[in-house]
UniProtKB/TrEMBL annotation:
This is ABC transporter ATP-binding protein. InterPro entries: AAA+_ATPase, ABC1_TM_dom, ABC1_TM_sf, ABC_transporter-like_ATP-bd, ABC_transporter-like_CS, ABC_transporter_sub-D, P-loop_NTPase, Sigma_54_int_dom_ATP-bd_1. Residues 48-59 have a biased composition (Acidic residues). Residues 1-60 are annotated as: Disordered. It is found in: Cell membrane. It comes from Bradyrhizobium icense.
Length: 664
């Protein structure tokens, strides 16, 4: 895709374009992020090395534990100084709603006792009064429940928006979305992690906190009710009696302990199973996406059967993981369903002796049964939510793995680890200079070494060399996408850089947006866009400028490269880097495009990477890279168009090194 650095943005042009739905969505999105959008991000957490004395199993567990810690390091910022300004308002509001809802539950519990006592006494007046009282209690409870849903889902939505914005900002910064493809780590399918895993990672904790808070308050409230109503139970045993104080409370705790202990034992592998399932789903989606993105090549090669085999293999893995997950759900359902059926009956059986001997009224029995069920539900919260807890655990770890990979790239940008290529400004009139530039892999292996180049304004430089000598890597270093190495890449201050890669990126949306990318579609008038299309030979697309469609699939490779040249004309940059930008064009069309660039951008400095020898005719200078031990080196720097008074920099550099060796 065409990429410009921060200084390469074209000037805004007048336009009568109205706000689009996209811009409205963006404004709403910004509203839920940090108030200070320009704040300085804190440095990434330091790397935590495992204890070398740990066993492999302990090391893996420590890694998983740290992943959860890493997730919370970023996620808790939602409630921090740079977080959402409404975060605490929603959170406190949700807490107050939960407390109020428990109070209404207690009111309905008391109402249960009163209504059954009145029915037992056949007190018609009290029954009528209590019937009238019930409706305000029910309506209030329902409204509080609805308000809880609003507050809870409001926190989830805004938290997801805030954290998504934070992760995507780090992902897109400094080309990290591209650099992730070049480094090792557990960050495969980042788009799935951001879209799905992050959603679950922010939804579930809010549900968990709200559920635990409600369960704790309910359990505390209704344990008091059970203790007060149930009192002590006296049981005759072997000629004597045994008195159990608070027997209903003890029964509720024992019952809940058995149920929760059972689910914990049965579901102990739920986390790993959920994590494996999510990874399998991500891989399956990735395979399908690859087929869609490369549909033309697959169709031309007739690779449907081979692709089907790959899809079936990946989908079979998904089904196996779902089968494992189904087994976990079946076991937990066995416990939860059984617990749900037995729980309402237990208090009735326990209270039956006291009711039969007259020490408890019918209303007290029903109140105790209701309170017991509420306490059991509160204690059994883990039983009902353990699968979701396991799923959250897996999703939070996957998001944290992506964060840690971004941490590593960010630490490298700050100077940690292997060397980094510096980016600065040239001195004098030079448009671009490479000073002792070396380009290496992220493990330190050299790709290009000891490169010294100075390019003057208006020069058109062709970078040549055999395949694998690092030409494209050098271009990525120029763009700032490849950060590893040494030396510096310097540009003339206040000059704009524009790059045309071999594979032209076509964004979604209208053709107008594709032509003006990466600028905004409304930055240029329709007449300007049509003129650019005419110059690059795409007149047949003029009538489709405002149409939306799968342009990435419908345009040919040559049309995409012509469209990229139309972008170049619209943006009118000072420095142009062409990376095999005419490879899909025939020789005649290639000549026309190069002639067009020279004519329309006569003062532009051009750096081209190409294999075709005929491109030399459009350049004033040629530098050649040759693969050597320890990395490719610049071995030739010649003028294709002789220029008086110019001494080749390569010659000066080689003579300088020779003199330095003699002096040593």
């Amino acid at each position: 895709m065409a990429r410009s650095d921060t200084k390469a943005k074209p000037p805004r042009k007048k336009s009568n374009a109205k706000n689009t739905p996209e811009s409205e969505e963006k404004s709403e999105f910004v509203d839920v992020t940090a108030e200070d959008g320009d704040r300085v991000e804190p440095p990434p957490p330091e790397v935590v090395e495992p204890d070398p004395e740990m066993s492999p199993e302990e090391t893996e567990q420590a890694r998983k534990d740290y992943l959860l810690t890493r997730f919370w390091i970023s996620a808790r910022g939602y409630w921090g100084r740079g977080g959402d300004r409404l975060a605490w308002l929603f959170s406190i509001g949700l807490l107050l709603l939960i407390v109020s809802h428990v109070a209404f539950q207690y009111g309905i519990n008391v109402w249960n006792r009163a209504i059954f006592d009145a029915i037992e006494k056949r007190d018609a007046a009290t029954v009528s009064y209590l019937a009238a009282v019930f409706f305000p209690l029910a309506i209030g409870s329902v409204l509080l429940g609805v308000a809880q849903v609003f507050a809870r889902m409001g926190i989830q939505r805004r938290w997801r928006a805030w954290l998504t914005n934070a992760v995507i900002s780090r992902w897109l910064a400094n080309g990290r979305y591209y650099q992730l493809n070049l480094v090792g780590g557990d960050h495969q399918n980042p788009e799935y992690r951001i879209a799905d895993d992050l959603r679950i990672a922010t939804d579930s904790p809010v549900d968990f906190v709200a559920g635990v808070t409600s369960a704790f308050l309910s359990a505390a409230t209704f344990i008091v009710v059970l203790w007060t109503i149930g009192g002590a139970l006296t049981i005759p045993l072997a000629g004597s009696t045994i008195t159990i104080p608070g027997f209903l409370v003890i029964a509720a705790v024992v019952y809940a302990t058995i149920a929760s202990g059972s689910i914990t034992a049965i579901g102990r592998s739920f986390v790993q199973v959920s994590e494996d399932k999510n990874q399998a789903e991500a891989e399956y989606r990735y395979v399908l996406t690859r087929v869609r993105e490369n549909g033309e090549s697959i169709a031309l090669l007739g690779g449907e059967e081979e692709e089907r085999g790959g899809i079936n293999k990946t989908f079979s893995k998904v089904l196996r993981q779902w089968a494992r997950l189904a087994g976990q759900h079946m076991r937990t359902t066995f416990v939860s369903q059984g617990s749900g059926l037995i729980a309402p009956v237990v208090p009735l059986l326990l209270c039956a002796p006291k009711y039969l001997d007259g020490s408890m009224t019918l209303g007290q029995v029903m109140q105790a049964a209701s309170a017991f069920t509420i306490v059991q539900t509160a204690f059994g919260w883990l039983v009902d939510n353990y699968p979701r807890l396991a799923d959250w655990n897996a999703c939070a770890r996957r998001i944290a793995s992506l964060m840690m990979s971004l941490d590593g790239l960010e630490r490298a940008e700050r100077g940690a680890g292997i060397g980094r290529i510096k980016r600065g400004e040239t001195k004098g009139d030079a448009m671009l200079s490479l000073n002792d530039l070396s380009v290496s892999l992220d493990d330190g292996t050299a790709v290009v070494d000891e490169t010294e180049v100075v390019i003057d304004p208006g020069e058109r430089v062709l970078v040549a060399g055999d395949s694998g000598t690092g030409k494209s890597t050098l271009v990525r270093a120029l763009a700032g996408l490849w950060p590893w190495g040494g030396g510096s890449v310097n540009f003339h201050p206040d000059r704009r850089l524009f790059m045309l890669p071999q594979k032209s990126y076509i964004p979604t949306g209208t053709l107008r947006r594709a032509i003006t990318y990466p600028g905004a579609a409304e930055d240029w008038l329709i007449e300007q866009i049509c003129d650019a299309l005419h110059k690059v030979g795409l007149d047949h697309l003029k009538d489709k400028i405002e149409e939306e469609g799968p342009w990435d699939q419908t345009l040919s490779g040559g049309e995409k490269q012509r469209l990229a040249f139309a972008r170049l004309l619209l943006h009118n940059p000072d420095i142009v880097v062409l990376d095999e930008a005419t490879s899909a064009l025939d020789e005649k069309s290639q000549d026309k495009m190069m002639e067009l660039v020279i004519k329309e951008l006569p003062n532009a400095t051009i750096v081209s990477v190409a294999h075709r020898a005929e491109l030399e005719a459009f350049h004033s200078r040629k530098i050649v890279l040759e693969r050597r031990k320890g990395g490719a080196k610049l071995v030739s720097d010649v003028d294709l168009i002789p220029r008086k008074g110019r001494q080749r920099l390569l010659g000066r550099f080689l003579r300088h090194r020779k003199a330095a060796k003699k002096a040593a």
